[in-house]
Amino acid sequence: MEQGTGSQGAVIEVLGEHVRNQIAAGEVVERPSSVVKELVENSLDAGATHIEVALEEGGAKLVRVTDDGVGMAEVDVNRAFLPHATSKLRLPEDLEHIASLGFRGEALASIGSVARTSLLSRRHEDELGWRIENEGGRISEAVEAGCPAGTQIEVRDLFYNTPARRRFMKRASTEFARCLDVVQRLALAHEGVGFVMTHDGKRVLDVEPEMDLVARIRRAFGAELADALVPVSATHEAARVRLEGYVAPPRFSRRDTNRQMWFLNGRYLRDKVLSRCLKEGYRGFLVEGRQPTAFLHLHLDPSTVDVNVSPTKAEVRFREQRQLFGFCVNALREAVAKTDIATPGESMVRSMERRQLAEDPNQGRFREPGVLRPTPPPVVAREVSGKKFEPTPRPLAPVEQPEEGVAEQPAVMGERGDDLRGPFLQVANTYLVRALPDGFEIIDQHALHERITLEELRAEVQSGKPEVQRLLVPELVEVARAELERLKPRLEELAGMGIELEPFGEATVAVHGLPARLKKPDAQGLVNDLIALLEEKGETPSLDELVEEVLHRCACRSSIMAGDSLTEEEIRALLERGRALESDQTCPHARPTRVRFALEDLEKAFHRR
Ligand code: ADP
Ligand code: MG
After folding, report:
1. Which residues neighbour 51 within 8 Å (Cβ) at sequence distance 6 or greater?
2. CA of 298 relative to ligand 2 center, distance in Å
3. What is the distance between the alpha carbons of residues 296 and 350, in angstroms, rounded to a whole number?
4. For residue 211, what pLDDT is reported?
5. Is the minimum distance from the CB of 576 to ligand 1 under 6 angstroms?
6. 193 and 277: one domain?
7. How many other β-carbons are positioned within 10 Å of the β-carbon of residue 30?
8. Residues 483 and 568 in one domain
9. Between residues 364 and 247, which one has the greater pLDDT?
């Protein structure tokens, strides 16, 4: 049989190597940031401790990566641009325990086929180095060249020979932002390595080798974030898993996931399972659509992960996914609850200052005192406490957990040694104001009570025996037939939550009992909520979901409302109960329960500093 072009009837051709490389390049090299990633990872694999990345025009015109790693001998320089040429993998078994960032031997070949590339390298033990060029797949012979020990690779005019691909590149500023993101992630993942990055000659990142993770985060993202981080550190002995790193308070959340960094055995990755872990860890602390900020290292036995899933290696497969998930979520939740969730007064003051400036651009300062009221509502303030002060009485409601839990919390303002004494000021029968040793806080009474009721109900349901208040005369609630049908299969589960319902005829539900914790039980409202919930969920909600949603609704319905006047005793009992919880900083809808102002904020507001 004849082969090749022109053979009779043949329509299938085996592609030439050059075209194959260009196709492979489509997978590995999507844009300048992928070039940056591959080259810097090679430098890291070569054991570099200083890596310099220089970009021009967002990397489209030039990406140059220089390192002080091991360098290459002549023979390796000659092989570096060949496809599937790698020093990192020898045997199929090696795939089981890959420790290097690269291993496919595709990157340089791919990059070389779609750009004008040159490589300059010298091993520390050699006197002279070698230089080789690759112009769109045409590879030169290595020639001797003087150069510092280490490797420098220059990639010019990316996609100059594939115009279709070139058109996919975005504006230089966008491509640059992606490159910066890549280098920042790598810099965070590799303590012990220094990074310098420039764009069109300007220095944009500078990280010294000695810097630890927090110092790197401070360099990359600023002190405000770095100072607010709370450490995570947990080990699962049996599964040989370790989770370490930092979570940020919910106020650092954003619309995108750019400040969400997972490192798996030192390799950064975007992985759906891990993203979900984070989301779950922040559940109840973030409003829909916001992404938390966190920097996390996961250490796993390499044989329990498969990193060989996609060429960009951004995703992996875990063998023990369930177990891993539960472990991570628990560790994360614990840390998230310790972050300072209260909206800090400082940022409020700043935003008011900005608003003020926008209104009156000629004036750089506050116009008159009292601007702490952005839009002054008709406020009726009432001092709740009397003039003289008795020693703190026992709280009205039993407090399950005394202060021990609080002592471990990070230094959240006002929590340590805080005896929850007044005086309290109730404003508009909605907000509670109280002094802290170093400032003051404003509490939204409804939001706080809602959180407390929810957590207490949840604890009861989890313990398996919620206290039920039986109604002497069952309350009858009329519903539609279809609604009753939807309710029927869930009656047993609802009873487990202390909600005792029974069908009564074809379109009526009899309410026999409700959770005793509900202060103002509203049978009718609750049944309607339940029906709405089952309808809204479309498919049947899982038991967990049902519990969560039902409890939310119960908590909301039976909480102190905005507008309820409270005595000092009631206020103190509320604060005590809040403090006994793992976290009382947000309501179940993730709105803050309290806003804190430090003395510093006040000093700024009054221009004392
Ligand atoms: P891979 O990283 O998957 O092995 P690459 O195409 O990225 O494949 O690189 C091919 C080979 O070139 C590497 O295995 C390594 O031996 C060598 N190499 C590439 N970059 C460097 C560097 N900065 N320093 C030393 N050797 C390098
Ligand atoms: Mg590589």
Report:
1. 40, 43, 44, 65, 66, 67, 193, 194, 195, 196
2. 22
3. 31
4. 95
5. no
6. no
7. 16
8. yes
9. 247
The number of the ligand 1 atom at minimal distance from the alpha carbon of 109 is: 6
Judge if 471 and 536 occupy the same domain. yes
Residues 177 and 245 in one domain: no
Question: Does residue 351 sit within a domain?
Answer: no
The rounded Å distance from CA 39 to ligand 2 centre is 7
Cα–Cα distance for residue pair 30/374, rounded to 1 Å: 48
Q: Which of 169, 185, 207 is the last residue of a domain?
A: 207
User: For residue 152, is it within any domain?
Assistant: yes
Q: Determine if the pTM surpasses 0.85.
A: no
Residues 177 and 219 occupy one common structural domain: no
Pocket flag, ligand 1, residue 442 (CB < 6 Å): no
Residue 128 lies inside a defined structural domain of this protein: yes
Q: Work out how many domains the chain is built from and give that number.
A: 3
Residue-wise DSSP of 275-317: HHHHHHHTTTTS-TT-B--EEEEEE--GGGEE--SSTT----E
- pLDDT tens digits for range 29-55: 889 999 999 999 999 999 999 999 999
Specify the residue with its C-alpha closest to ligand 1, atom 23. 43
136 within ligand 1 shell (Cβ under 6 A): no
Find out whether the beta carbon of 440 lies less than 6 Å from any atom of ligand 1: no
**Single residue among 336, 365, 395 that ends a domain in this structure:** 336
For residue 41, which atom of ligand 1 is closest to its CA?
2
Give yes or no: residues 572 and 497 share one domain.
yes
Tell me if 105 CB under 6 Å of ligand 1: yes
In which domain, by residue range, is 308 found?
213-336
Residues 225, 198 share a domain: no
- 514: which strand partners? 469
Q: Is the CB of 103 under 6 A from ligand 1?
A: yes
* Exposure on the CB side of residue 248, measured as CA atoms within 13 A: 24
Task: Show the tokens assigned to 489.
Answer: 């299969």
Render pLDDT for 383-439 as a digit per residue (tens, 0 to 9).
443 333 333 333 333 333 333 333 333 333 344 456 777 788 888 888 999 988 778
Q: Is 113 in the pocket of ligand 1 (CB under 6 A)?
A: no
- pLDDT tens across 472-522, in order? 888 899 988 888 888 888 898 888 888 999 998 888 999 999 888 877 778
The verdict on residue 29 lying in a domain is yes
- Measured distance CA(558)–CA(457) in Å, rounded: 11
Our mutation pick for probing the ligand 1 site, out of 28, 36, 42, 68, counting the most ligand atoms within 8 A of Cβ, is: 42
**What ligand is nearest to the CA atom of residue 123?**
1
Assess whether the C-beta atom of 48 lies below 6 angstroms from ligand 1: no
Q: Is 151 near ligand 1, meaning CB less than 6 Å away? A: yes
Looking up residue 227, the CATH number of its domain turns out to be 3.30.230.10
How many Å apart are CA 248 and CA 213, to the nearest integer? Answer: 14
Ligand 2: centre distance to CA 142 (Å)? 20
